[in-house]
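Work Package 3 (structural annotation) set out to generate three-dimensional models for the target panel prioritized at the project kickoff. During this period the team completed the workflow that converts sequence records into C-alpha cells, so that structures can be stored uniformly alongside our sequence database. As a representative example, we reproduce one entry of 378 residues exactly as it appears in the project archive.
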Amino acid sequence: MPAVERVLVVGAGVAGEAVAIFLADGGVQVDLIEQKQQIAGLGSGITLQGNALRVLRELGVWDEVSARGYGFNVTGIRAPDPAGTLVGEVKDARTGGPDLPAVLGMPRPDLAEILFDRALAAGVNVRLGTELRDATDEGDGVTVTFGDGSTERYDLVIGADGLHSRVRQIMGITEEPKSTGMAIWRIFTPRPASITRTDLTYGGPQYIASYCPTGENSLYAYIVEDASAANFELTNEERATLFRSLSESYHGPWDEIRQYITPDRPINYTFFETHLVDGPWNRGRLVIIGDAAHSCPPTLAQGAAQGLEDATVLAELLLAADQVDDALWQAFTARRLERAREVVDASVQLGQWLLDHNREADVPALMGRIAGIVSQPA
C-alpha cells in the first residue's frame, strides 16, 4: 500500500498536474485545487527539453504532445547584423533519449489542456476556483482550510502553486524569487515556413532575440532585455509598438516575424526571477515542488522540466514507501536538491554572463555539463 491514501495537490500547473496523475494512477485519492476558474497555461509558448519529454512520455501523453508540438534537434546561432547571418549550428543533446526529440516547442495552453484531460481520466478530483487558506500539520495528517471556510483532512499536501506559493508561506519558508535584472518579451504568431527550429541571436541592442516553433502553423518569438517595471504599465498597443521597435535590430527570419507583432496579439512581459529553497522541501507532511521550490531564468529552458522531474520522483517515492517518514524525505532531498541547484545556478550564470557582456564565458561547456546531468533520469 502507498505511503499515502489521500493527497491534496495545490496548483494545477505542469508540476501539480503531473504529480496528481502519477499518484492517481498508483491508486491514491487525489484532490487537485486551482484558484483560477479555468486551466490555461500563461504566456505564449513553451520550450521543452528532452528530459521534460521523457516525463511526459511516462505520463502517457507523449503522442498528444508530439502531435500538437514541434520537435527539432538542431539550434542555429545568428549574428545581430543587417542580414541576420547564420554563423553556426549546434546539435542539441537528446537528453530524453535517442527516440525523443532534443527539443519540442508547443503552445502552453495546449500542454495545460493535455495534462488536465489526462488528470481527469486518471480519476483526479479537480476543483477549480478553489483557494487554500491554511493548513495545519497534525503529525499523522494535515487539516486544510479552503477559501470558503470548509475543511478537509489529507495524508499529505503538495504545494505546486508556483513562484509565490501559498503553501511555501504556510510552511514558514522565507526564500522568495528575486529578479535577475533581465526581462523577456514574448508573442505568439504564425510560423513562417522558413523557421523549422530555434535560432538564437546573442548581442545587438538586446541580450537575446530568438523564436521557437510550436506547431505546424505557430511559433513564439521573444526578446530579452534589461528589466523595467514601467513596462508592466503599458497597454498592449504600447507593448506591440515597443516590441516591434526592439525587433527592428534583428533580421533574417525576424523580418518575416515582425509583421505579426501587432496590438491584436497578446504580448507577455515577464521578469527573469530565481530562487532555490536550500534544504528539505518539506515541513512535516507539507511539501513543495516545481516553481514553489525552485525557479530559474529560462536561459536553459529547464523550468518545466525540473518541475516534471520533481513530480515523478516524489510520486515514485510515495508509491513505493509504506509510510511518510524521515527516510522518505531524505531520499527525496538526495535525488532532487543538488540536481535542481545545478540547473538553477547554471541558468543564472548564463544570464549573468550576458548582463556582464562577458565574451570569454564558456557557454558550450556550461550547457554541455547540464545536458550531461539531465540526460540521466532524475
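DSSP finds ten helices and 20 strands in the chain.
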